[in-house]
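Good morning,

Attaching, inline, the backbone tokens for the sequence recovery test we're adding to the shared suite. The designed sequence is right after.
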């Protein structure tokens, strides 16, 4: 129904006033005009709301894919967004059975399986399921056409490309936002207008106490209880997972996004804005600010840009197109790098390096 049709239906005179010869008093004419203006304003407001927000606002409808036990969902809900939980294998759902509708969601958040791209995979060959899930995720993004989307995974995840979206890649750790873990998480943020997020990081000090990352494999460790495992992820108390085995509980919580990271990302999404034309955004896409003429914020940013220049066969997953690059070795490329402190890898791995999934 168009605004004009709504206006006519509400502001038109009733049977008595609309009959031939009926007298319309000035007071009645004023009341009818006032109601008519109100309907016109409300109709325009409803039309604008349906067409989608022109800027980032807290009252957004967000679809969560591969939600797990919903740690990332919880962080975005705390920021005021309305999060709709999508399918996940632990709840008996399959993303292959999900179909999106255009214009229904303002944003999409997702944490697809990472095992095929993780350096923890070592010599285990990739199963191909990780790439399949990424392709399904991109299919849903194309079907829904949200204003923005955010995907969390490990640094070895392929580049995601969706036509019509500018994509920003950045690494984050729990310790940068007040947590205790140095486990590195990788974020890809896509926006129709090419906007970027700038999570507010803390300055890490050398004397700050950190802990071994909360991993999905922690069930085999006897030195950490399940409540402590949950506290490392930002949970005040363990979630109620009645009937779940010890291994399943540790895996579900360990695969989740720490709440400190999730809250920083949600705040970053709400504060998203265009890239600064004055050149104060770090060129690597980490979301940090720089002071010109500098173009990179940290030494890690310079190393990241150098690695990108050397990766000629970088794995890329494009929505609706064939996979390009050497995706079979996406995780191996991360495992073979020098660690975050610039030291050579030790046999069996270096525990000082930020852990991945």
């Amino acid at each position: 129904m168009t605004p004009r049709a709504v206006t006519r239906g509400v502001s038109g005179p009733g049977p008595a006033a609309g009959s031939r010869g009926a007298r319309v008093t000035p007071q009645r004419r004023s009341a009818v005009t006032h109601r008519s203006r109100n309907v016109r304003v409300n109709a325009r407001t409803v039309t604008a709301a349906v067409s989608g927000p022109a800027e980032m606002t807290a009252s957004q409808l967000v679809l969560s894919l591969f939600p797990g036990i919903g740690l990332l969902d919880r962080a975005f809900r705390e920021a005021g967004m309305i999060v709709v939980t999508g399918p996940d294998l632990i709840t008996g759902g399959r993303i292959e059975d999900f179909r999106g509708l255009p214009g229904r969601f303002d944003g999409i958040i997702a944490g697809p399986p990472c095992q095929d791209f993780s350096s923890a995979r070592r010599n285990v060959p990739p199963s191909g399921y990780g790439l399949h899930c990424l392709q399904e995720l991109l299919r849903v993004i194309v079907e829904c056409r949200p204003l923005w989307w955010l995907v969390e995974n490990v640094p070895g995840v392929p580049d995601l490309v969706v036509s019509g979206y500018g994509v920003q890649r950045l690494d984050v750790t729990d310790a940068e936002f007040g947590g205790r873990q140095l486990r590195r998480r990788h974020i890809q943020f896509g926006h129709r207008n090419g906007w970027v997020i700038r999570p507010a990081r803390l300055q890490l000090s050398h004397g700050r106490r950190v802990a071994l990352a909360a991993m999905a494999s922690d069930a085999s460790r006897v030195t950490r209880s399940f409540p402590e495992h949950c506290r490392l992820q930002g949970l005040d108390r363990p979630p109620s997972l009645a009937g779940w085995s010890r291994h399943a509980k540790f895996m579900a919580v360990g695969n989740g996004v720490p709440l400190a990271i999730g809250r920083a990302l949600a705040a970053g999404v709400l504060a998203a804005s265009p890239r600064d034309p004055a050149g104060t955004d770090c060129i690597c896409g980490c979301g940090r600010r720089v002071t010109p003429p500098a173009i990179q914020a940290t030494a890690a940013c310079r190393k990241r840009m150098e690695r990108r220049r050397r990766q000629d066969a970088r794995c890329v997953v494009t929505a609706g197109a064939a996979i390009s690059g050497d995706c079979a070795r996406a995780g191996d490329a991360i495992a073979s790098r020098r660690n975050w402190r610039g030291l050579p890898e030790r046999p069996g791995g270096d525990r000082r390096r930020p852990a991945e999934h």
